[in-house]
Design goal:
about 55% helix, Citrate_synthase_sf, Citrate synthase, Citrate_synth-like_lrg_a-sub, Citrate_synthase, citrate synthase activity, binds carboxymethyl coenzyme *A, about 5% strand, single chain, Citrate Synthase, domain 1, Cytochrome p450-Terp, domain 2
């Protein structure tokens, strides 16, 4: 009998939030193509869509954005915690700890859109504050007139960001917001199914997101491209990695057996920002070489570029250091996590799968 691993093909829940069609390379958010939303919408509009099930009208959006701005404040004790944690603590661990410290009565079961909005508004503040503290820089207050993506860049740098950078980051954040029953979302839904609070579900999700096989991949993509160094070495480097049983970061996906539509969309966005950049040329060269060699070394596995490859490229192009890659992914994915927690609460039944015991049996008969 084949080993039972990874819950491959197992349906864990029905969902109205998104469709991830791995055979055809489609990603749909509540009836809309995600790649179109990424170009035409703001972060706030798509968050509204995922939480409420429909796009907002003008009045709804205004009220929603007003609440969003009002929610941009960090409790004093969480700021103290950000100052207290040792400098070498990885940013994802800081994020997880800070989010868990938000666990107050305001986030108790049952979860609500108001709770989801409040924590989504706070996540970029945690990341930006900690990043600036780590780098000995003064903290920057949020700027009310800026949208979510622009405000995040502003709080990191202290400079009003270029429109092209905001557009590119928004596209990435929207495409990163939601992706069906991925590992972190599943972790969050499992916690939520116990009727634990939204904050507990999110800290579990952040823990899952941190791993290099999930949200940690973009940082590894940069490391891989740095190790390859130039186009001439790409093929040898990839061959040697695959011959040693290594993985090419930013390639392969459990669900997509064709091109990841998020990678396609982000390739175009990055190309607009970085067409002259030699690093981007190298990335495009490595992508083509990797796809060819993955087919040679792993025939039939259908391994293509995933979202993380171009997530790394886009974040690099807008000047984010690699330490911020996975936290930035989390700033986006918190919307999907909380949409799933809300959905789980609405239909809740505790997750309790079975395991197959493969250990030894006692040699003695059970005593009566
Ligand atoms: N490089 C080399 N070989 C690979 C890769 C890769 N990136 N991905 C899968 N394979 C091979 C793997 O070695 C295995 O070969 P064999 O059949 O000879 O043992 C086969 O393809 C199937 O791999 P698997 O590990 O069973 O696939 P999975 O569905 O369990 O894993 C994955 C999916 C994304 C973890 C994996 O493709 C991977 O490790 N990719 C690199 C890390 C990465 O880019 N992660 C970001 C994923 S996208 C964002 C997200 O959803 O979180």
């Amino acid at each position: 009998m084949a080993k039972v691993t990874g819950l491959e093909g197992v349906v864990a829940a029905e969902t109205d939030i998104s469709l991830v069609d791995g055979e055809n390379g489609h990603l749909i958010y509540r009836g809309f193509w995600a790649k179109e939303l990424a170009i035409t919408s703001t972060f706030e509009e798509v968050a509204y869509l995922l939480w409420y099930g429909q796009l907002p009208n003008t009045a709804e959006l205004e009220a929603f954005k007003g609440q969003w701005v009002a929610d941009r404040c960090l409790p004093e004790h969480v700021l103290s915690l950000l100052k207290l944690l040792p400098r070498e603590t990885p940013l994802m661990s800081v994020l997880q700890t800070a989010v868990s410290a938000m666990s107050e009565s305001q986030y108790s079961w049952p979860p609500s859109v108001e709770q989801a909005l409040k924590i989504t508004a706070v996540l970029p503040i945690i990341v930006a504050y900690r990043y600036r503290l780590e780098n000995g820089l003064p903290l920057i207050e949020p700027l009310n007139q800026l949208d979510h993506a622009a405000n995040y860049l502003y709080m990191l740098t202290g400079v009003i960001p270029e429109a092209a950078h905001v557009k590119a980051l928004t596209a990435y954040l929207i495409l990163g917001m939601e992706h069906g029953m991925n590992a972190s979302t599943f972790a969050g839904r499992v916690v939520s199914s116990t009727q634990s609070d939204l904050i507990s579900a999110l800290t579990a999700a952040i823990g899952a997101m941190k791993g290099p096989l999930h949200g940690g991949a973009p940082t590894e993509v940069i490391a891989m491209l740095d190790a390859i160094g130039n186009k001439e070495q790409a093929e040898d480097w990839i061959r040697s990695t695959l011959e040693q049983g290594g993985r090419l970061m930013g390639f392969g996906h459990r669900v997509y057996k064709t091109v990841d539509p998020r990678a396609e969309a982000l390739r175009q966005v990055t190309a607009r920002l970085s067409s002259e950049d030699p690093w981007f040329e190298l990335a495009i060269h490595v992508e083509a070489a990797a796809i060819k060699l993955l087919d040679e070394y792993k025939p039939g596995r259908r391994l293509y570029t995933n979202v993380e490859f171009f997530a790394a490229a886009i974040m690099r192009a807008i000047g984010l250091p690699s330490a911020l890659f996975t936290p930035t992914f989390s700033i986006a994915r918190v919307v999907g996590w909380s949409a799933h927690v809300l959905e789980q609460a609405a239909i809740n039944r505790i997750f309790r799968p079975q395991s197959v015991y493969t250990g030894p049996m006692p040699t003695e008969q059970v005593s009566k």
